[in-house]
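thread: overnight batch results

M.L. [08:02]
morning all. the overnight job finished for the chain we discussed friday. pasting input first so we're all looking at the same thing
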Amino acid sequence: MAVHLTRPHAGPVAADPGRQAFLLLRTVFTVAPIVFGLDKFTNLLTDWPGYLAPWIDHLVPGTAQQAMYAVGVVEVAAGIAVAVAPRYGAWLVAAWLGGIIVDLLTVPGFYDVALRDLGLLVSAVALARLAVRYDARAPRDAGAPA
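M.L. [08:03]
and the structure it wrote out:
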């Protein structure tokens, strides 16, 4: 007796690894900036002002904690931008991560965190590129496949 196994029909997300990557990166780069941005107001995860380079602290008005409040607002806005318009929001996150990397490279002892953030920056750029194809709200390029 022969047994025939059939696979259930795979939907568009399950069948397309590029779309899976887009959705995964979009989710992470929406949630993480919002969570970390909100934590700038509570310092539950870490002492955020300790990550601010002294030269930046001297440039911005107020205390390092007050600077972290501004950073928190920008990070929450970046997360929302990725959720609403990942094609552009991902570039905002990548640029923000570039600034964070510059900050971290000028504070001794944070080189490992700067390297991790470089990986996140590259991932944000990958999201921006994937969004050109997979974000349904993004305008299509004239020659791009549908």
